[in-house]
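Deliverable D4.2, example record:
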Amino acid sequence: MDAVLTKAQGPVFSSGHDLKELTSAQGRDYHTSVFQTCSEVMTLIHNVPVPVIAMVNGIATAAGCQLVASCDIAVASNKSTFATPGVNVGLFCSTPGVAIGRAVPRKVAMEMLFTGRPITAQEALLHGLVSKVVSEEHLEEETLGIARKVCESSRPVVALGKAAFQRQMAQGRDAAYATATTVMVDNLALCDGQEGIRAFIEKRRPVWTNSNEKAHD
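Output generated by the structure prediction step:
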């Protein structure tokens, strides 16, 4: 597997949790389980060793907006909208705020969380919630094009790079550079790292092993 693509049929990409599951009748333990499971899914998106790409064509609210924010790449149609409307029904979108607050500027996240008002696809692009906005008729073509481009690269190189990016983003500058330096050296030790360099020098396409085999220690 080289990439994961998440999409939906119909006018709603994801509207988040089913509020009928969140009444007092289900109880605190059940509510805890619901939000823990959702958090585990979002964490898995970060930890899975391949890029996760969202193809959004419609409404993404609450945990649905959280899902978009958690994905590595998100391509949206110009008809898409994004919101965290929980505050309007008495349930602040605290868990969506974790991903959204790491994807967009703080004041943009706070406005979304405090007001529940939706933002347009273009606003989402401006603030960094999505990677690209295209017309609805070009959405699948554009998203699949990105996925195919990702799949042209070496799997272990992409996996190494994704893990390093996520790790250094949680660190201070100096620690992040130390992490990235170590990863660059580890990357060069991979057979695919050396193959890519040879292919560039020899002006040919690389032939990836797609394995973690080492070229040197």
